[in-house]
Known about the structure:
Blueprint: E1 2-6, E2 9-16, E3 19-24, E4 32-35, H1 41-59, H2 77-89, H3 94-107
Helix pairs in contact: 2-3
Amino acid sequence: MNTLSYKEYQASVEFDDGTLFVKILHLDDLLIGECDAASDAPKVFDDLVEAYLADCAKAGREPSKPFKGSFNVRIPPELHRKAAMRAAENGLSLNGWIQTAVEEKIEKPTADVSAVA
């Protein structure tokens, strides 16, 4: 999947049955556009975001926030135990320790781990 970013929003660009679809990700609202050429995808995405923000303003409602800063992570119990123990050894809460781990992973990206999921 290819992605685009604009104004803190992200979209996927996917090819299906001869058409490119641009779908805004991470929202409760469904926003999809289509185009014929890959070079048109960024413009379609920008227009989707701008139309969405304008529609929200016109309706007097806040746009959906893509991220709230809270999410559940499901991991094996043994990994949970090891992480909690390592966090305590470092004088951190498990939440603080995981936040640091995510920050480090984002700052120093490594091999693609999409096959792990």
